[in-house]
Write a structure and sequence with these properties.
The structure holds two protein chains of two kinds.
Chain A: E1 5-16, E2 19-30, E3 34-38, H1 45-52, E4 60-65, E5 68-69, H2 75-81, E6 83-85, H3 98-107, H4 127-136, H5 152-165, E7 170-174, H6 182-195, E8 200-204, H7 208-214, E9 217-222, E10 225-230, H8 232-236, H9 239-244, H10 248-254
Helix pairs in contact in A: 3-4, 3-5, 4-5, 5-6
Chain B: H1 2-18, H2 25-48, H3 56-71, H4 77-99, H5 104-124, E1 141-142, E2 145-146, H6 150-172, H7 175-185, H8 187-192, H9 197-223, H10 233-246, H11 253-272, H12 275-290, H13 294-311
Antiparallel strand pairs in B: 1-2
Helix pairs in contact in B: 2-6, 2-9, 2-10, 2-11, 3-4, 3-9, 4-5, 4-9, 6-9, 7-9, 10-11, 10-13
Classes of the chains: A alpha/beta, B mainly alpha.
Chain lengths: 259, 312
Amino acid sequence: MTDDCILETKGLVKEFRGFVAVNGVDLKVRRGHIHALIGPNGAGKTTCFNLLTKFLEPTRGAIHFNGVDITRESPERIARRGIVRSFQISAVFPHLTVLENVRIALQRKLGTSFHFWKSDRSLNQLNDRAMELLTSVGLESYAGMVTVEMPYGRKRALEIATTLALDPELMLLDEPTQGMGHEDVSRVMELIKQVSANRTILMVEHNMKVVAGISDTLTVLARGSVLAEGPYAEVAANPAVIEAYMGTEVTELASPAGH
Amino acid sequence: MSRRVSIAYLIGLGLLLLAPMFIYPILVMKVLCFALFACAFNLLLGYTGLLSFGHAVFLGSAAYVTGHALKVWELPTLLGLLAGTGAATLLGWAIGSLAIRRQGIYFAMVTLALAQMVFFLFLQAPFTGGEDGLQGVPRGTLFGLDLADDINLYYLVLAIFAGSFWLIQRTIHSPFGQILKAIRENEPRAISLGYDVAKYKLLAFVLSAGLAGLAGATKTLVFKFATLTDAHWHTSGEVVLMTLLGGMGTVFGPVVGATVIVTLQNELADKVGSLVTVIMGAIFVICVLAFRRGIVGESLALYQRMIGQKNR
């Protein structure tokens, strides 16, 4: 059972000066799943993400990745182990070209990233692979554009391509469809589904349509603790969850197919 | 584009080769030293996004060490330059390792504080000559050429400048430079892609400090003295002004900025006296308010706009 689990947290706690943002979270992410993390604002979802990738130091508790304790490792070390995250606010390198964005992720493997005496033409050998990745997210025609000029939805797609460049075992997506138009949402949803082959995805998501559409497992966080966990239909019927989501969001949760 | 740039560089180099026939060589050498200093600073501010507010300490410490090595230890000229540059590099490593633990304004304050500590050391230490400075540094010879002759020295200084400028330009356009730009653009993202950003920042800081040191060492050779001014925080502020005025994050901007500032100071010093500080301040304000991208940055933007219109 445990080897089926790619990521596991045990009693994860994060306190900020007396305020408990994450309170004893036990999370189990199964290999190959798309696992969604939902909850009302301030439930601790993003804090959880920051703990898992060590952008924040947990106050207590342990994080295991593939059975190895990674609680004390540095964020760049975690990334090199194969846990790569995206950010809530679009994380691109705005004044580099779209191709360069992906190449930065590919570049580390060459082992020349400290070589300040070498020409950057030595990076051109990565262009083919970078173009492949851009094509896989439908951005091949943007390759030469300076990223800042791209529409928002495309930036999220670029972010996914950059993350994919590291071929992560576990991808953490923080609100991948946030602030997107209808069309973009469907495109990104398709994209996530497509890249989830051969890897595990853990995502924070507010859009119930996306959650219902592509997630295998769902964890509901409320006030820093796990409220419910399981497949979508099961969780949506849970009275505690409905209570936490008072008001209009209950109906949204109950009828994901609606608009 | 890159071909046009190389041609522009060759023309610039050609003009510099002929410059001492028309302009007082000491002035051109002073400009070159400060241009190198500003380029080294720009590597950190413009391409890594780190604002060091104590960069004069690297200029100053290299100036003293080279002066001491040439005057007291009587080392050959090249070894003296090397000693100064090496000292600044080591100091850069020490100050850099402490400063890069903090970000933004805190980084700037840590560099300023550490630089002030070293400045105080220079003020008190016997070997610097305190307020009087280290005077009468011999220039020595190089390959049998007497460097006491300004023209001979000029070509050595030009070679040092050209070599360092090439190195900075190469660093910017290297695999390492790509990562620096990534860190400048979005540090958390660079971390999440598995880069240990502290190490990249430190190497950038050490390179910048070493090259600033080379500028200081060369300056000692030109003026035959090293003084407290070189290490003073005024000089740290001046290099910020040069870089911003010329165009931060452009390869050639700091050279233009340094040329304008050094020439102005030289021309105005005996005409307006201490008013020069006020004029520099006014230039700084105008630069920040009216053309933030600096002389080179604004010119490039204008050029691109014109090209864009032509294509349309």
